[in-house]
């Protein structure tokens, strides 16, 4: 029995000891569940850099923004800088909160993977975009849990706050990205 206790202690600590950027990103997205309780697309003036709308509300892009910010990556600043460098009109209060702008950023600075109908092609921390009914864009982060059918769950906000749900293949996938650089 004395030998078993150190082994159990090591196994309990192993996930934290092996945690990398993807696991940190998923953990940061998961931390929003129960905190971000509503969907609110209202335009607001926010600080720059590191600005945010009140944490109890937001949209799908805010889940992604907050998760990356928690691991030291400010998408507000990075998306704004990308748009400005391209000579586009910018509004640092909202540009980073638009799915097409985030998708363009991830395509340019991350790894763009082909959309796939295979659950095994999606890893924890991947960012996925969808086309919802009515042509609306949506975005979320692949979690480290799977459904009983083996489909990776997604952390997103589609109308009632941040949630962990089995929606990866509920809508047409339009983008699949991996973006885990060092923070700056």
UniProtKB/TrEMBL annotation:
<dbReference type="InterPro" id="IPR038765">
    <property type="entry name" value="Papain-like_cys_pep_sf"/>
</dbReference>
<dbReference type="Pfam" id="PF06940">
    <property type="entry name" value="DUF1287"/>
</dbReference>
<protein>
    <submittedName>
        <fullName>DUF1287 domain-containing protein</fullName>
    </submittedName>
</protein>
<dbReference type="InterPro" id="IPR009706">
    <property type="entry name" value="DUF1287"/>
</dbReference>
<feature type="signal peptide">
    <location>
        <begin position="1"/>
        <end position="19"/>
    </location>
</feature>
<keyword id="KW-0732">Signal</keyword>
């Amino acid at each position: 029995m004395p030998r078993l206790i150190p082994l159990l202690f090591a196994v309990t600590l192993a996930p934290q000891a092996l945690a990398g950027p993807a696991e940190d990103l998923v953990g940061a997205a998961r931390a929003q569940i129960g905190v971000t309780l509503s969907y609110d697309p209202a335009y607001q003036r926010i600080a720059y850099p590191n600005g945010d709308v009140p944490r109890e509300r937001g949209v799908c892009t805010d889940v992604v923004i907050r998760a990356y910010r928690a691991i030291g990556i400010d998408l507000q600043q990075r998306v704004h800088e990308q748009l400005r460098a391209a000579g586009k009109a910018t509004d640092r209060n909202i540009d980073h909160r638009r799915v097409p702008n985030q998708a363009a950023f991830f395509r340019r600075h991350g790894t763009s993977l082909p959309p796939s109908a295979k659950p095994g092609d999606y890893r924890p921390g991947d960012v996925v975009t969808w086309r919802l009914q009515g042509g609306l864009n949506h975005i979320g982060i692949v979690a480290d849990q799977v459904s009983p059918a083996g489909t990776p769950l997604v952390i997103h906000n589609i109308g009632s706050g941040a949630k962990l749900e089995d929606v990866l293949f509920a809508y047409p996938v339009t983008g699949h990205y991996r973006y885990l650089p060092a923070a700056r």
